[in-house]
What we know:
Blueprint: H1 10-26, E1 31-34, H2 41-49, E2 53-56, H3 70-80, H4 82-88, H5 93-106, H6 116-140
Parallel strand pairs: 1-2
Helix pairs in contact: 3-4
Amino acid sequence: VKLSPSNTADVKIAWKLLKSLGKRVISKLRRIYGDKAYNDKKLRMKLKSQNVKLIVEPKKNATDKGTDSSEDRSLRLYRNSPNLWKSTYNYNQKTFVELVFGAIKSRPLPLSAKLSRNKKKQIIMKFFVYNFNMMLEMENL
């Protein structure tokens, strides 16, 4: 978990998160999903060098350079058939993350801590409580 002010670019936090994961963890990943805020060429190239594919929905103003690169092929597919693009890249995986964040943000548990490290602990506990509740609900099914 990385906390940042709301005016901090998401991609800056992505770099910090990747650094904190370390090479050993990153080497076990195949794909990383993100929203359009993570569409960054340097981030994509860094992950590509570690055999990890960054799956981000293309921006509306993205330009097709006419090459046979995976980025241009992905952009052409997206423009021709967005649903096929989402299916091909299994983009629905991002939905699960968004659902968890949405559920955690909507819970009436305000952050009462003033220190950053304590806020981080509270957020981690929210994730723990969310996952614990999900596990209990699954047990009751």
